[in-house]
Amino acid sequence: MGLVVQKFGGTSVADADRMREVADHIARTRRQGHQVVVAISAMGKTTDDLIRLAQDVSRVRPGREMDMLLTAGERVSMALLCMALSERGVPAASFTGSQAGIITDTTHMKAKILEVRGDRIRQALAAGQVPVVAGFQGVSQTRDITTLGRGGTDTTAVALAAALGAAVCEIYTDVTGIFTADPRIVPSARRLGRVSFEELLEMTATGCPKPAMRAVEFARNHGVPLHIRSSFTWEPGTWVKEEDPSMEQAIVSAVTHDASEAKVTVTGVPDRPGVAARLFRGLADRAINVDMIVQNASIHGLTDISFSVPKDDLAQSLEVARALAPEIGATDVLGDLDVARVSLIGAGMRTHPGVTATMFETLAANDINIEMISTSSIRISCMVRTGAMEEAVQALHDAFKLS
Amino acid sequence: MGLVVQKFGGTSVADADRMREVADHIARTRRQGHQVVVAISAMGKTTDDLIRLAQDVSRVRPGREMDMLLTAGERVSMALLCMALSERGVPAASFTGSQAGIITDTTHMKAKILEVRGDRIRQALAAGQVPVVAGFQGVSQTRDITTLGRGGTDTTAVALAAALGAAVCEIYTDVTGIFTADPRIVPSARRLGRVSFEELLEMTATGCPKPAMRAVEFARNHGVPLHIRSSFTWEPGTWVKEEDPSMEQAIVSAVTHDASEAKVTVTGVPDRPGVAARLFRGLADRAINVDMIVQNASIHGLTDISFSVPKDDLAQSLEVARALAPEIGATDVLGDLDVARVSLIGAGMRTHPGVTATMFETLAANDINIEMISTSSIRISCMVRTGAMEEAVQALHDAFKLS
User: Fold this and answer.
1) Using an 8 Å Cβ cutoff, are A247 and A241 in contact?
2) Which residues of A touch B84 (CB under 8 A)?
3) Helix (H) or strand (E) holding A67
């Protein structure tokens, strides 16, 4: 019995049938006594289609005009949803990012939200309406239309929930929640009733598809509980909240995997200050997103540095590293596409140091070689050969009794 | 060498190729030393597609949400045009109706423009940019998005031209201008170099397809010269201006035709005050747009009233008239779909009373029966059988030597 923000992505509103189902669900939520605010994406692949159209028309595509173009999509979906709600006797009104008072900086195509004014949203709620807000968009301090980049509607939803003091932000998607492992790999994988923000952040960083990391971070920073659930089955999904210190933590919550990265190894690097800095500044200057970084202990004053980058960036990363090799005194630069990351996630790991050993033993017992290791307080990741990834996930899921 | 407002409709920007051609033309206009402001419609049939989508989703379609939906179309076209202009080295910026300061009343789907603020348009011009403004849309006094109804982009263009003091408003279309008759019927029809606002208004009322009448009226009221021309051949077209009293008027400028209306005849009506009022109030209450009205002289205190209505409204018009028949004492109500209107238009008619006689003689000589006649100071219209329409147009075009 409170204010609920519901976010519906492109798949959830891909066509007229889906739009009507979503309207039915919103009407149901109202009948249960809740106030509802909706954040909605463009229908299906609309945004991709618009990008393709722009590419057909012009090689030059200023960010301001791309944002004007791309924000057409939510206009369509939100207006249609309001019509479907009206048909169901639910008063509704659509609001653009600008009308909703979502103020951003002036960085077109990946703007940051500076403020959510939300006056018209509050007025609509007070008038008994369901405000349907365009996701992914805002208006800059200079009154130009902006978009928030990929995953922008998740961010819109969470920002609205924070500004309005919502009891929960429900993220509707095409999966039924967060699982202990990918059910396509581990048939006995189980849906988690709840995870902590930190655990979810570690998962999204290592291959769990949703929701957008920046939205999860925003939710954590503003204490907005998330509920990740399905817009196809409508069953309850996974809650994401602050860790509850009074509850005993599961040691391991989930096993995740990620085959999207490649490994680069720079060998024979002199072990002296400034070498790593020079290398990673060079990569940062080319906007290459480095994830895991491992540096071995040095032998005879020489060490190896390995790091992972998105597979698409491998060629450019090798180029950068090879160009810097003489300067940093490296003997060789090697690239490897045939790697995948397998990770254990769990807030309980902090107090259970045995987890790492069990993980390594499990992989060894299955004859799976570990190419690279990195850890955080609630995550352990191992790089393995791509071919061993699924077996590793299954073995770890069994070893930690996650079924 | 002044400010030119250029209006491009859906056909002019139907696809990526057309969009690039339009951008080329704007760049050319700039090179000729003009400042350019653009008013643009949605691409091709976008608006119709969006209406169909709404019909698929919901039987209830509030005007506010229809307007939110339909305004998505211009967002796409104007952003794409700005990209194409940028590619050609022409700095450009798109503006929604709201950003352009096009303030309307709150009548959704057929809002009236109350004011054009245009501050951002003037700023963009001062900064050397081509402002590309969304046609057909505005923002109401209550900050909701509105649309201007059919022909809305013509109205936007003319309103911008008036507010900015433009030298001319160029209406680009798929014809090369206004002709002395429809060239499909009269192969020797000639393009007019200029017509007066009044003549054009009479033409749009009787079957000349463009531009929107309300835009022409707006242009006349604000003294904005129009130039109707082709976005396919780019040749100079027809100028529409105030009548020039110093010039001798052509007696007849054009022969137009219109087969979109049906005729209703109410017979044996007592010739007393209030009868016509009762009938036409009944039709107006059903929002039926009556055009020609003819009442014959009464014989023995009874008269016949004939009027024309859009063919689509015939059934409803008959229903209304038949329901009122007992009350107004009519003996019969007859409908006729097999009629077409042929009109002579010409500012010179005012001072040449012989035109009407020549028209009737010409039709008689071709054995064409006249079913109904109505006149204004610069127009004479005759209803004829549909099958005789083309012959009538050709004969009149010859008789008045318009080739």
Assistant:
1) no
2) 57-58
3) helix A63-70
pTM: 0.86
In angstroms, the first-to-last Cα distance of chain B is 34
- Going along chain B from its start, the domains and CATH numbers come out as 3-173 (3.40.1160.10)
Which segments of A107-225 does DSSP mark as H helices, in order? 119-126, 152-164, 197-204, 213-222
Residues of chain B with C-beta less than 8 angstroms from the C-beta of A143: 99, 120
Nearest by Cα to B138 from B170, B119, B116: B116
Q: Which of A344-348, A390-394, B125-129, B342-346 has the lowest mean pLDDT?
A: A344-348
Which residues of B touch chain A, with CB atoms under 8 Å apart? 16, 19-20, 50, 53-54, 56-62, 64-66, 68-69, 71-73, 75-76, 78-80, 82-84, 86-87, 92-94, 96, 99, 120, 143, 145
Q: Which residues contact A77 (CB under 8 A, 6 or more apart)?
A: A13, A19, A40, A41, A42, A43, A46
- Listed in sequence order, the DSSP H helices in B307-353 are 314-328
Under 8 Å between Cβ of A206 and A381: yes
**Bridge partners of A341?**
A258, A383
Residue A65 has its nearest CB partner, among B62, B73, B94, at B94
SS3 state at B152 = helix
d(CA A396, CA A20) in angstroms, rounded, equals 42
Least confident range from A7-21, B182-196, B287-301: namely B287-301
pLDDT digits (tens, 9 = 90+) for B109-123: 999 999 999 999 999
What letter represents residue B387's amino acid?
G
Nearest one of B292, B145, B157, B166 to B212, comparing CA atoms: B157
